[in-house]
């Protein structure tokens, strides 16, 4: 069993993913913003961070999403008592992994330190395989072929 921190601003998505990961046998804590996630990371040990890219408040995108969170974890929390976060595996799950007319968000995510990314909707068998690989430090399996 791993301790997983999920940062997802949409309640239905948070419930969906946290329930799926709990059914896989993991202990899941949830945050709705990057700042809330950072506070949780300071308070307890996590084996994996799963984060969405985009965060909305009052229907508007804010700058406290997954990219900012990953950047803070990798760059600002590498000193002293939080140095272990430098090696925390990070999985991005987003509906905007590849949006028409925009840069590939996985490339952007990986440039700030994400280890893997999945686009929504997620196949839960694949999510489980990706989580297992990240926790073991193994290569992340390719997504299943479209049917």
Description:
With 147 residues, this protein is an alpha/beta fold. The chain has a single domain (3-136), classed as Rossmann fold (3-Layer(aba) Sandwich), CATH 3.40.50.2300. The chain has five helices and seven strands, in the order βαβαβββαβαβα. It has helices at residues 11-23, 34-43, 66-76, 105-112, 124-136; strands spanning 3-7, 27-31, 48-51, 55-57, 60-62, 90-94, 116-119. A five-stranded parallel beta sheet has the order 2-1-3-6-7, with helices on both faces. α2 (34-43) packs parallel to α3. The chain starts with a strand and ends in an 11-residue tail after the last helix. The model has no long low-confidence stretch (mean pLDDT 85).
Number of strands: 7
Query: How is the largest sheet built, in terms of strand order?
Result: 2-1-3-6-7
Count of the domains: 1
Total helical segments: 5
| Strand percentage | 15-25%
Modified residues (4-aspartylphosphate): 52
InterPro entries: Bact_response_regulator, CheY-like_superfamily, Sig_transdc_resp-reg_receiver
Protein name: Response regulator receiver domain-containing protein
Domain Response regulatory: 3-135
């Amino acid at each position: 069993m791993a301790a997983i921190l999920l940062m997802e601003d949409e309640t239905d998505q948070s419930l969906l993913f946290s329930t799926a990961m709990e059914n896989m046998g993991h202990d899941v804590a949830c945050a709705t913003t990057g700042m809330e996630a950072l506070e949780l990371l300071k308070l307890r040990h996590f084996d994996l961070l799963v984060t969405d890219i985009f965060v909305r408040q009052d229907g508007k995108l804010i700058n406290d999403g997954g990219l900012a969170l990953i950047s803070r974890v990798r760059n600002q929390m590498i000193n002293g008592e939080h140095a272990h976060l430098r090696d925390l595996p990070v999985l991005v799950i987003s509906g905007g992994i590849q949006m028409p007319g925009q840069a590939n968000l996985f490339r952007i995510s990986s440039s700030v330190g994400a280890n893997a990314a999945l686009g929504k909707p997620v196949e839960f068998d694949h999510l489980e395989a990706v989580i297992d690989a990240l926790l073991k430090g193994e290569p992340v399996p390719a997504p299943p072929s479209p049917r």
